[in-house]
Amino acid sequence: MQKRAIPVEFEELKSSGTLPSPAGVGIKILEITRTDEFSADDMGQAIMSDSSLTGRILELANSADRAGQEPITTVSAAIMRLGATTVRNLALAFSVISERDDGSCKAFNYPLYWSGSLARAVAAKALAQHVPGVSSEEGYVAGLLAEVGVLALATVHSEPYAKVLLETRGQPMSVVLAAENAAFDIDHATICYCMMLDWGLPDAFAGAVESFNLERLSKEGAAELNSLSDLLRFADALSSAMLFTATTPPRRINEVGEQIELLQKVLDYSDADLDRLIGQIAGEWSRWGERLDISTCDVSFSSIKEATARGREAFKNEVALQTGGGIRCESVVADTIVTTAEAVEDGRALGTERIKILAVDDDPVALRLLVATLRKQGFDVTFAKNGSEAMRIAMREGPDIIVADHEMPEMSGLELTRALRRSKRGSSMYIVLLTGAEAEDLLVTAFQSGVDDFVQKPFDARFLVARLRAGMRIVGLQRRVEEDRRTILRQLAEKNNFNRRLKMLSLTDLLTEVPNRRHAMERVESEWKSAARSGTQFAVVMVDVDHFKAVNDNYGHDVGDRVLKSTAQAISSTLRGEDQVARFGGEEFLIIVRGAVLEEVRILAERVRLVVEGNIVEAEGYRGRVTVSLGVASFDQGFTGVSEMMKAADEAVYQAKNLGRNQVRGARESSPCADESTTRRLSA
Amino acid sequence: MTPIGKPMTMSISGDSGGLSAHIHSPGNGGGVILDANAIDVLKELGGDDVEFLTEIIELFLAEGLMRVSEMHAGLEGLETGRVLQAAHALKSSSAHVGAVEFSRCCAELESLCRLEDQGEDLVLTGRRAVAMYSEVQTALKALLALS
To answer: Which residues face A405 on adjacent strands?
Structure first.
C-alpha cells in the first residue's frame, strides 16, 4: 500500500519544535531504529541505560495476560518474546509519557488526558486477546497514543485551540474535527497519523489509529472486533465510562452506554463477565497509574452501570424536551462514581510567581528543617523523602530549583541529577546538592553530571539562602527565555496560519468555495507526474451545467450563482475523500479521481450525473433542478500529456452535449453520430 | 541569622530555659551534650509554631533510635557498611538538634569505617557513640518535658 503524503500543515506543526515527542533514550531509540534493519541488540542496550524504562517494559512483558509463560528479567528476553518492533514502540510510548508536561492550553485538561489515555491503554490490552493479529502490547501502545494529535494541538496552538475546545464543548467528536480543520486546516486524526509515521510506527498501525479518531463509535449492526481500530473504539468506550464526571454530557454517556452494550453482544458477555473484565482493567489501571504517576480512581462495574443508567435517563429527557414534552432533568449523572476529575482539577492549580523548590532528603530531621527554612524565606516548597519520589514529583510539578541530599539509599542525589538532566523538563532545573564535608572528590563528577551548586551539610541557613539567590537569578533568566520562546513560536504559528489562509484563498473559488482552476491544474499536473512515475491511475471528469445561460437569462445572476454553488456541493457530496472537484470556469467543473481506470470513473461520473439531476436548487423566486453533461478521460488511455488528456475530456463533454445533454461520455469513444467530427459545440 | 546545626559556642550556658541543667555529660568527661544555641536556632526557625521544636526532637529520637540499633548490630556483626550508614545519617541529624559532641563522634566513626585497616578503634569509637546517644536521648527527652 502506498503511504500518504505528509501534509504541509503537519510539517508546519513539526517545525514549531513543540510537538509532544520522545526524549532522552527515546530519541536514541528513534535514531537506532531509523531503518528497517536496525540491530535489536543496540536497541536493547539503549533501553537498559534507563532503569525505569527497562522496568516498565519488563513489567508489561510479564503481565497477567502472559501468565503461564516463564518470567523474563532482561530486555533482550523481552525483545525475544514480544518482538523488536513491539518493544521499540513500547519504549517510545513510555518515553513520550515521561516527557509529559502541563502545557498552557487553559481549556485542555492535561492530567485527565493522561488518565484517559492510560485507561484506554489497559482496556485495549485486556481486549486485545479477542482481536486476531493484535497483541496486547500493540493494543496498549495504540491506546496510550491514540489521542496524541489532540495533545499536539493543545501544545502547539494552545490559545486558539482553547477557543476551539470551548466552542465545541459537549459536542460530538465530528464537530470537534470540523472545527479543528476550520481553524488549522488539519485535524487531530491526521496529526496523530503523521506523528506515528514520524516516529516510525507502521503505516497500518497509524492508519488504524486515524480511523478510530475519525469514527469513535462502532456501528450497531456492523459492530465487530476484528481490527485495531475496532479494538480502540471499544477500549475508548470502557475508558470513558471509567472517567465519567458530573460534567460529562448525557449525550456522551448515552453513546458510551450503547457502545458497552454492543461490546457485550460482540463478546457474548454476561454482566458477570463484564464485571470481571472491568475489575481487571480497573486494577491494572491503578497499578500502572502508580508506576507512571498518572491519576486514577476506584471504579467498579456497578458504579459505571448506575451512572450510565442515570446519564441515559437524562439524555432521554433532553431529547424529549427538544422534541416537545418531557420534563427537564437538570441533575446529571455521575455523582455516584468516584472520578479523578477533582484530583485532576486540584493538580492544575499552577503556582504564582513564587519560585518553586523541591527539597529532597532521606533524613527526616534534615528534611523538616530544610523545608521550614525554605518556607520561611517565602519559597513555594514541596518535598520528597528519596530520589525516586523526587524524580516523580519533579516530572509532575516542574520545580524551578531542587535542593537534594547527595547520600541517599537507592537513588543518590547524583543519580537523581543525571536522571533529571536526561529529561527535557529536568534539563532546565537548578540543582543544589547537599554534601558532607568530605565530598570534595565528588565535585568534578557532580558538576559533569549537571549539578549547579553545592552546600555542605549540616547546612547553614544563611549560606544556603545566599546560594539559592544565585539559582533564582538563573531561574528568572530561564523564565524570560522560555516566555520569549513561546511568544516567538506563537507569532510563527500565527504567521504560518495567515500564510496558509492566503494561499488557500488564492486557490479557492470564492463563489462555490471549492478549489479554483489554478488549484485544479496544479493537482492534475501533480497526479500526472505521480502516475507516470509510479503507475498510480487517475482520471479527470469535465462537468458542464446544461442550459445554464437560460437560468441566468430567465432568473438573473443571483439564481445562477445559487445553481453553481448548489451543484458544486452536490458533486462534492458524492465524491470519495481522495477525489476532488474544482470550479474550472463559468459553469464548468473538473473532478480529479485517484486510483481508478476509465470504466470505474465512468461509474463515478454517472453517479455524479444522477445526484445533480436529483438535486433541488432553491433560491428566491426559483425552485428547480439542473442537469450536467460529463466527459471522462483517464490516464490509462495513453495520452501523451496533460493538455491532450484535458482536451479529450473537453471533447467528450461536447459529444455529451451533442447527444442530448445530461449524460456521460468517455474520451475517444466512438460516437453514434456519423458526422460527430463536424458537429459544432452546442450552446451550453 | 544564626547558622543551623553549627554551634556558635560551646558554652554550657544558653538561653533555652531549663536546658542548662541537662547539657553536661557526667559520663563523658563533662563535655557538652546539647548546644543551647542550636536549640535557640530551632525555636527561631519555628517562629509562631510552638510545636516545631517538639516535632524536630521527636523526629530525631525516632530516627536516632533506629539508626543506633543499626549501628549496634553492625558493630556486633563487624558489618562496617551498616555502621557507616548509621554513623553518616546520625552525624548530620544530631548536629541539627545541637548534639555537637555526638555528631563529631559519628563523623569520626564514619571516617574509621572508610579506612581499609580500622583496627580496634572502630569498635571503641562505635561503643562510645552508642553510649553518647543514650545521653543525648535523655537530654532531649528532658527538654521535651520542659517545653
So the answer is: A434
Separation between Cα atoms, residue A297 and residue A376, nearest integer Å: 35
Domains: count for chain B: 1
pLDDT at residue B30 in the model: 54
Angstrom distances, CA of residue A40 to CA of A69, A85, A143, A380, B53: 22, 9, 24, 45, 57
Mean pLDDT of chain A: 83
Closest C-alpha among A224, A255, A206, A245 to residue A127? A224
> SS3 for A64-120, per residue?
HHHCCCCCCCCHHHHHHHHCHHHHHHHHHHHHHHHCCCCCCCCCCCHHHHHHHHHHH
pLDDT at A332: 36
Are A588 and A598 spatial neighbours (Cβ–Cβ below 8 Å)?
Answer: no
Chain B residue with the nearest C-alpha to that of A463? B3
Give the whole-angstrom CA distance, residue A121 versus residue A5: 28
Residue B145 neighbours by CB distance under 10 Å: 9
Single-letter residue type at A250: P
φ/ψ of A661, rounded to 5, equals 70, 180
Identify which of A184, A182, A116, A102 has the alpha carbon closest to the alpha carbon of residue A147. A116
Tally the C-alpha atoms within 13 A of residue A99's C-alpha that lie toward its C-beta: 23
Residue of B nearest to A372 (CA): B45
Q: B20 to chain A nearest CA, in Å?
A: 23
- Residue A669 vs residue A617, higher pLDDT: A617
Domain formed by A517-678, architecture: 2-Layer Sandwich (3.30)
3-state helix, strand, coil in chain B (%, to 5): 70, 0, 30
Closest CA to A23 of A424, A429, A419, A294: A424
Here the CATH number for the domain that contains residue B38 is 1.20.120.160
Q: How confident is the model at residue A671 (pLDDT cuts 50, 70, 90)?
A: low
Residue of A nearest to B94 (CA): A365
What is the interface size between A and B, counted as CB pairs within 8 Å?
A: 63
What is the distance in angstroms between the Cα of B127 and the nearest Cα belonging to chain A? 23
CATH classification number, A356-480, choose in 1.10.10.200, 3.90.1640.10, 3.40.50.2300, 3.10.290.10: 3.40.50.2300
CA distances, A153 to each of A19, A177, A211, A294 (Å): 8, 12, 18, 21
Contact between residue A244 and residue A332 where contact means Cβ atoms under 8 Å apart: no
Q: Does residue B3 sit within a domain? A: no
| Position B20 pLDDT exceeds 50 | no
Comparing CA positions, the residue from A596, A543, A592, A595 lying closest to residue A570 is A543
Q: CA nearest A664: which of A587, A625, A617, A612? A: A612
Q: How far is Cα A119 from Cα A243, in angstroms, rounded to an integer?
A: 9
Among the listed residues A434, A464, A363, A414, the one whose alpha carbon sits nearest the alpha carbon of residue B87: A363
Write the CB contacts of A83 (distance below 8 Å, at least 6 apart in sequence). none
Residue A656: Cβ-neighbour burial (10 angstroms; 0-12, 13-18, 19+): buried
Contact across the interface for A369 and B111, Cβ inside 8 Å = no
Indicate whether this model's pTM tops 0.90: no
Residue A306 gets which letter from DSSP?
A: H
